Amino acid sequence: MTSIYSSEFRIHISQHSPISFNTINQESTQINKMLRKSLSSNLLDSLIKSLKIQNPVLKSATKSFSSSIYDWDSSSAAKEKVDCVVIGAGIVGIAIARELAFKGREVLVLDSGPTFGTVTSSRNSEVIHAGIYYPHNSLKARFCVKGRDMIYKYCSEHDVPHKQIGKLIVATRASEIPKLNELLVRGTENGVHGLKLMEASEAMDMEPELQCAKALFSPLSGIVDTHSLMLSLLGEAENYGAIFSYNTTVLGGNIKGNQIELFVTGSQNLDNWNEGDTLQPELRLLPEVVVNSAGLAAVPLARRLMGLDNSYIPAAYYARGHYFSLSKTKGPPFRHLIYPIPEDGGLGVHVTVDLDGQVKFGPDVEWIGDVADIASFSNRFDYSVCPDHSKRFYPEIRKYYPQLKEGSLDPAYAGIRPKISGPGMSPSDFVVQGQDVHGIPGLVNLFGIESPGVTASMAIAEHVTSRVLLSDVN
Fold first, then answer.
1. Locate the FAD dependent oxidoreductase domain: which residues (predicted)?
2. What span, in angstroms and rounded, lies between the C-alpha atoms of 258 and 263?
3. Strand spans (E) along 107-258
4. Cα separation of 293 and 433, whole Å?
């Protein structure tokens, strides 16, 4: 295939040698974390220098950063033709880049963070979901079930740490038992095999510390080291020729006819941004394909693509979830994942056992309002976990773990869910939006990729890549 990159671009990217995923997967988790830091070089700075682009200055203007209409002054920014641009280097973006590169496409991945997987992909429960909760034939159900099998197979073949430990979904009172029956029916319809309703005695024989009225056992649920999984997928993507540029923010774009133009700048230019300033692009990319896999920034980014009808873009909602780790115990009280009945906005404060046997509880659901574009673009969310927040956790956890001791919950971490349904609304499905919806060739928007996003990542990648290649044929 003939490269559509300029000679300067190709000379630069050839100097960025790919990592060996086979070697990395044989190393310890600690070494993996050290290697991840080595991947955080800013390719945009070198790219700009290789293209002899002058660094622009921020110009004062009356438009706010969150405005939907922009007076872009991009005349001084150099243009570069590229094949496929994936925006976002979370687990879904990495998986898509790997799949596209494997199919022979030239792929450039842009992420505003200092390295890959710094946002939602590294702030979750690290659970491989079976596919129980989601409406039959929904994208969440289909991608979760298929992605679950793909991840188990991939992890086994590439020595990615994981374990199929099973899950108990528990009714803590008689009034919740009908919901277990509903989940059994739904999971079975979705193709989740091995589900079993258990009487309280049977479930508590499996987990002596558990208290429940009845339980639904899912043997296909498991846990995975998401960082090792991302690192392995990224290594393969790079070995297939994909390029990852960190500290690189896509400000927005312009769509004229069938051509998408992306306005790109270094993330450091957002550090001292003040409302009322207009950010000018350092680089204009002219891609054949754009996959908006920006997670928390996916919706605001889509709204900054001039020429894309906003009626196709859903509202964005953000829900913070806190996690607490269990301390002051002689050993882990549970061997399986323990989940309560799902709640509004999430799956309830559940028990997660990591690969080291450490027990965590979470996440809860705390809705966040008034999120500016710059917060989502630069991941400027509050991820702190106040110790006093544990007061909300103790009564919820004691519904199924009554022996939880006071003072045994330590603040762990928090994550933000990129939701497209708000408080009191019915849970939304994944949105994978292509030309058949918005009419723009080459543009794929991914909205609302929350849980089970990790589990579904490889299935989403396969689906998106098939759509992109199919659109090329058509």
1. 83-466
2. 17
3. 107-110, 127-128, 162-163, 167-171, 196-199, 214-218, 222-224, 243-245, 248-256
4. 11
